[in-house]
Write a structure and sequence with these properties.
The protein is mainly alpha-helical and 137 residues long. It contains five helices and no strands.
Length: 137
């Protein structure tokens, strides 16, 4: 593994830790989630989807940081943003169309919170990575 890939994995580690923590939380506290009327499978699938989308957008953002010109930077940043947005919207509409009026609002709000958590974590990492890259030359 080259140095750039090692930095990439180490930088992405907090997102992986969020995924592991949320998944463990959902599995261990299954009864508590049920008492809060939170659908555990929806929470787990939403967490998995958000982790996958964050991983995909991570590659776009990394390319944006290493891009040599402004157009490439903007193209990668917008691609990552649109990817996340459209995948989440499509997943939401698929869930609503399958469940109709039986949507689990507490789980949907938990997944929305997870979206914000993943986005915040990713942006903090990218800002630190960008500053480190700019300070090194």
């Amino acid at each position: 593994m080259n140095d750039n890939a090692t930095i990439s994995f180490k930088a992405f580690l907090p997102v992986l830790l969020v995924f592991i923590f949320v998944s463990s939380f959902a599995v261990v506290l299954n009864r508590q989630l049920a008492s809060w009327q939170v659908d555990q499978p929806l929470l787990l699938y939403g967490n998995l989807l958000l982790f996958g989308v964050t991983l995909s957008s991570w590659f776009f953002h990394r390319s944006a940081i290493t891009a040599g010109n402004t157009q490439a930077f903007l193209r990668n940043v917008y691609s990552a943003m649109l990817l996340k947005l459209f995948v989440c919207i499509i997943a939401f509409f698929i869930y609503v169309s399958l469940h109709g009026s039986n949507v689990n609002k507490p789980a949907l709000f938990a997944v929305m919170f997870l979206y914000l958590l993943y986005t915040f974590t990713e942006l903090v990492i990218l800002i630190k990575y960008s500053k480190k890259r700019n300070s090194n030359g």
